[in-house]
Structure formats: structure tokens, C-alpha cells
């Protein structure tokens, strides 16, 4: 974290003393009781149509046939309609509370395990553009990836690879309403860092905080499969309606 980000975090912590986002118990951003109250989604749905329930959010046969999808499935941990979850995600991303990677990562791990998502060879966080990374001071997706890397399999830590980069700075997806515009906004913006990496026959787990249309995850999956990845799944904390 940069010096500016550390100073900003100290100021925010001073203005907003640490207490549970829900019940205001002091000295913790969310207490165990309130965290347990955020229910992991029981059912997962095809990430393309969002209508068909499928194991671990696999692409349904109809969408697989109609669309040239690269993403093989998407696990969504919890409902974004939960007001507490919204506050936690907002605090994580916009109040720069990096400690929230712990409970949010816990939710992600629970969803991945509960849905029997195939064990990946590597975990890949969705990258930020360097300009946004400098502003925020950290990549929230990388913090989540590091959290779950040692928890989704017993006695083994999955390697986290920061192999994706953003080569173009674009408007955040949340500010774009139309589905096609979101697809166009992320088209061609990702690339493999440090030259070509052979991912032949590897299973990859993409990690991001929030998904909406899934356009960002789909574009990341396209790049990873171009490097030989056999399967690319994704997991997010929640999915917004659009």
C-alpha cells in the first residue's frame, strides 16, 4: 500500500472508529454472529441467462449452444440485496478497509466449498488498471484470492497467479447501463503479463468482488483460454442486477 493510501486509511479509521457494520460491537468490522447471518446462496444459476439452476453455476446447455462463452461457470456467494453485504463491499472498496478481505474471503470460500467447484490448478484475481490501483492502494480481488488460496483445499495452498493485466483504462462497469455497452467496454482490455504463459490443460479459478453482466469475467476467461487453459471458472462475493 502506498504512503498516500496509508495516510488516507489512518484518517478514515480516525473518523470512523472500528465497530461492527451491523451491531456496532467495537474493535471488529463485522462480528462472527452478524457474519453468520449472511447466508450463502443455496442455488447457483447459469451465468449467461441467469434462469437455469446448474451445479456450481455452469453454463447451461442452451447458452453454451447459442453463445460463444469462454467462462465455464460462476459461483456467487451471497445476495447483493442483503444490506449488510452491500455495506461490507462498499467499505472494502471505497473506505479502503483491507481487513474486510478476511470475512468476505470467508464467504467466498464457503460458497466454493459448498458448491463443490472443481479444485483449480491456479487462482487468478481480476486485475485493476495501474491508475486505479494507485488510487485505491490495493487490488481487492487479489486480497480475496490470497485469502481463499489456503482454505478451499485441506493441507494445500493453491498458487495465486497475477498474470492478467489491464492495458487500457476504461470507465468502471458499474457506470454503464446497457449490456452490449458493457461488453464493448471490456473488449480487448486484458492481456497476459510477463509474456506468454502456457496454461495448457490447467483449470483456473478467477476471483472478483462483484459481477453484473459477467462481461469482465468473460473477457478474462477468453485471454486465459487463449493461453491454453482447459477450464475457467469464477467466484464472486455477489452479483448485481442490471
Task: Describe the 3D structure.
It is built from 9 helices and 7 strands; from the N terminus they run H-H-H-E-H-H-E-H-H-E-E-H-E-E-H-E. Strands 1-7-6-2-3 form a 5-stranded parallel beta sheet, with helices on both faces. Helix 5 crosses helix 7.
Give the helix/strand layout.
Elements: H1 3-15, H2 32-36, H3 61-66, E1 73-76, H4 83-94, H5 101-114, E2 122-125, H6 130-136, H7 140-149, E3 159-160, E4 164-166, H8 179-186, E5 190-192, E6 203-211, H9 215-226, E7 231-239
Low-confidence stretches: none
Structurally, the number of domains stands at 1
Tally the beta strands: 7
Series of H and E elements: HHHEHHEHHEEHEEHE
As for the CATH topology, it is: Rossmann fold
Proportion in β-strands: 5-15%
User: Based on CA inertia axes, which overall geometry fits?
Assistant: globular
- Report the top-level CATH class: Alpha Beta
Which value, in Å, is the CA radius of gyration? 18 Å
Strand order of the largest sheet: 1-7-6-2-3
Report the average pLDDT across residues. 87
What is the end-to-end distance?
Answer: 32 Å
CATH architectural arrangement? 3-Layer(aba) Sandwich
Helix content: 25-40%
Task: Please report the number of helical segments.
Answer: 9
The secondary-structure class comes to alpha/beta
Task: Report the biggest beta sheet as strand number plus sense, adding barrel if it closes.
Answer: 5 strands, parallel
